[in-house]
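Chapter review: from sequence to fold.
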Amino acid sequence: MNTTFIEDFYPTPTKVMLAGLDLNFIEDVLDLGAGRGVIGQYIVDRKEGCRNRYGRERLARVDVVEINPDFHNVLRAKGFRLVHDDILSFDTFKVYHLIIANFPFSIGAECLQRALALLERSGGHLRCLVNAETITNPFTNVRKAVVRRLEELGAKIEYLTGAFVAGDRPTQVDAALIKLHLKRPAAPSIILDSLSRAESHSENLPPPDTQIVEADFASAMVARFNLEARAGIRLIDEYNALRPHILDRIKKEDDDDRHDYSKPLIKLEVEGASDYRPDHVNAYLAGLREKYWGLLIHDPRFHRLYTSNILSELDAKLKELRHYDFTVFNIGELIREMRGKIVEGIESSILALFDEMTRKFTWDESIHNGNVHYFNGWKTNKAYKINKKIILPMNGLSSWSFSGPKLDYDIHRKLADMVKVFNYLSDDRTDVGLLVSNACALADNTRDFDMDLRYFRVKFFKKGTAHIWFLDEHLLAKFNIFGSQRKNWLPPAYGKRSREQMNQEEGEAVDSFHKDFPITYDEVVNRANFFIVEHTGLLQLAAGEPEQTQQPVIDHAPSEPQLQLYGTA
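The token string follows.
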């Protein structure tokens, strides 16, 4: 027996040692050289009644290392687990939240070196006492190494004078209290390392926690998907290879496989999969595909020109897309499919806005008188067009904030849709998402809800209305013409024939429409390419190329066709 430990035993000044340590988050504790277990008992007593946010008691579980056999029964009686005797030979794979120790003064450096090795492996807190000379007088190589490592790790050291004057074995020796906290080190992945070395393209991939670069972001996402897919499958394969070796019982040679009830101590769980390797792989890939399709669909670089009705359709496709590999080819197929629907989406968005500003709210004359101008529509008397200023019932302000009213969350989407509609009509390809989000943020911060959104000015009032002023008369005229034509309120020859070439009924409808209109019918005829939007024109709106700086493209091998995002192919 090493009697040095017994001779160097001095009771611990517990309160001083643990001062400032939040015990609420401490559960697994290791006491090196526990003695009678005074420190561990203090922690257990302080932890009684502590509960986490789910109501579960956060008790302290104390493991102890103690070489003096006279203390072993004392420690066990307190409910502590005696896991070893000699500090210097102790080793474990277990992770502890806190390591505490009052080391024997004569070999404090050696014990501290062992404690640091345990802490650096698993992270956590260290609170320990050593003879002050261990730090202040590093005359041995071990002491020098320990002092240097403490400095590198950023440990705090407090020197205590007279800490052991009182107690069962008083002494005048000064002590050094060492406080150190280390985060749990990130576990290296052998699978990822091997995959990264095996694939040349992985050297250029962004790390998982960084944003994908603007240029070529879709192909970078495909590369990241491929890496995660291979890593996950390798992990599943590795688990299944190790599974027979991590069972809860050892199989005997004469055991019948049909009555084998052993279970793995470590269980691999993949959402939606049974305990069967092919199911694990397929379920993992389905979830991974859904993750990456969702990232692509919700990335502004992909959807910046889509209105909310098109985005809702894309969201609805996510469950279907989880069955399609995330590849450049399938991204192109999705874009081509959406291109076929985008014309309908653009038209329905424009008409929905037109209806909201006209027919939907015309019943309330007290609010909306003056919103629209009525005219004799094509074979009907229920036609109308939007005036330069309108008032809509729109609860744009939320009163939930303690600091005052703020824009309702749905208003962000509504305003973005309105701006995108006029963006389409103006044949503009710039991204309006930042424009709207910045305007909304400024309004919330300044409490000034009068916003300029390029094509119109809007002001929200607490009574639940929004006043809208259109800033471009020609664009408003185009909006009115588009809505009126789709409603069949204008004759089919509108914009295609001159006024003189029309019959009386057609001419009267055109005259009525242009009464108090900011532009003449002759201007419409002369600039028909701008004012009249045909179906082919909507196709061009859907497929037009934005400015080069605004639209990254997928850059892949010359043998493959170029793929453009935002509804083009």
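Two observations follow directly from the output. Residues 343 and 536 are 9 Å apart (CA to CA). The radius of gyration is 37 Å.
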